[in-house]
C-alpha cells in the first residue's frame, strides 16, 4: 500500500516560552486546473491585446500551480486556509455527471491534492467549500433545499454528493460547532477553534442563504437570510466568549485576536462596464438585513474577516450606519481562474487611500463600506466589454489577470495584523519583490472593530 505521510507541528502557541510571537497564515482560493476546457475547439481570442493560450500548452495549464506554491511556501506559513473553489467542475475536462458526479469530482479533487500535497503535508490546513466544489456556478443553499434551476435556492446535486464533497474536503477541520444537519440531511461544518494564540471562526455563508427574490418578491425582505439564525447565534457566542478555545489562554491575559474565515465579501464590491454599482445577488451584500446583522456581529467580535471567491483582491472596512463602523475584510485573489470581476466606480470616492478606486463607497444594495485597497484585472471592464460584449467575463491570458494569494501575519508583541497580497509569479525573496498596490496593510488589534467617531 502506498502512503503519503507528513508531520503536523504542535500548535505554535503551546510552545510555552519559545512561542513564536508571529503567526503566519496563507490564504488561497479558486484554483482552476486549466484555462480552457480540454474538449474545447481551437478558438481565437476576442481580445486583441490578449495572448491565446491554446489547449495542451503551458499557457493553458495552471495545474500544478508550481510558482504559486513555491512562492507562497517561501513565507513558511503556520496555517493554510483554502476558502473555496478548490476545483472547477468544467476543468480540465467537462463536467461528467451522467454516471456518478462523485467520481468526476474525485478526479478533480485528486488534482488539487496532488498539486498542494507538499505544502499541506506538514501544515494544518482549513478548507471551506464553495459553489464550484459542489458543481454549481452559484449557490444559494436555502437551508439545504433541492433545486433544479439556479438561481432558485438550494442544491442541484444529491445530498449524498454534497455530503461527500464536504466530507472529503472539510472532515479534517475541527469538529462542527453544532453538527445538526440542515434540510435533507446535508451536513454543516461551521465551527470555531484556537490556533497559534488566535481564535478562528469558520462560516458557511452560502448554506443558509436565501435565493434572489422572484417577481413576487418571494422571499419577502423580512424573511431573507444570509448566515441564518443558527450561525448568527454562533457568531454572537464566539464574539463574546472564547468558543472552541482552551480555557487557559496563553496570551498573558491580553485580548485574543479573532479571525473569521468565510467564502465571500460582505458587500457587493463590483461595478458594471459604465462604472455603476452592480447588484450581484451572489455577493454577501445581499440580503442587506442579513448582511448588516453579520457585519455587526463580526464587528462586535472584533474579527478580521478573510475570504476569496471574487477572483480579484480587495481590502475593505465595512460600515453599517457610517462607512467605517464595521470590521475589516480581506478578500484574497484567485490562485488561478478565468472569470473576472471589476471594481471601477466612475464616481471618485472620498477619503481615498492614494490609490485608484479606494475610499468610501455605497454598493448596489445600499451597503456602506470603505475600500482600502483593490487590485483589478489589467484591462478595464469598459475596454473588455467593447471587444467581448456582455457574453462572457473570462480573460484567458494570465498576464492580464492579477492572481495570487494572501499572507496574514498576526503579531502578538506588536498587537497588529499585517495583511499582504502577493502575485503568484513574484518571488517574495527577490530583492525588489513587490506585492499588489495597497498591500501590505497594517491593522492594529485595537482598530479591528471599526471607527465610530468619523464625521
Ligand atoms: Fe471562484
Describe the structure.
Residues 58-314 form the PhoD-like phosphatase metallophosphatase domain. The chain contains 6 helices and 14 strands. With 455 residues, the protein is α/β, with parallel strands linked by helices. The chain has a domain at 137-447. The strands form 2 sheets. An 8-stranded mixed sheet has the order 4-5-6-7-9-8-11-10, with helices on one face. Strands 3-2-1-12-13-14 form a 6-stranded mixed sheet, with no helix packed on it. Helix 4 packs parallel to helix 5. The longest helix is centred in the first third of the chain and has 20 residues, at 101-120. It is globular and about 60 Å long. Residues 30, 85, 309, 311, 337 line the site of fe (ii) ion (FE2).
Summarize the structure.
The protein is α/β, with parallel strands linked by helices and 455 residues long.
Task: Note the topology.
Layout: E1 22-28, H1 66-73, E2 79-82, H2 101-120, E3 125-127, H3 159-170, E4 191-195, E5 198-202, H4 228-240, E6 258-261, H5 288-301, E7 303-307, E8 313-319, E9 328-331, E10 359-362, E11 368-375, H6 381-388, E12 404-411, E13 416-423, E14 441-444
Parallel strand pairs: 1-2, 2-3, 5-6, 6-7, 7-9
Antiparallel strand pairs: 1-12, 4-5, 8-9, 8-11, 10-11, 12-13, 13-14
Helix pairs in contact: 4-5
The chain binds fe (ii) ion.
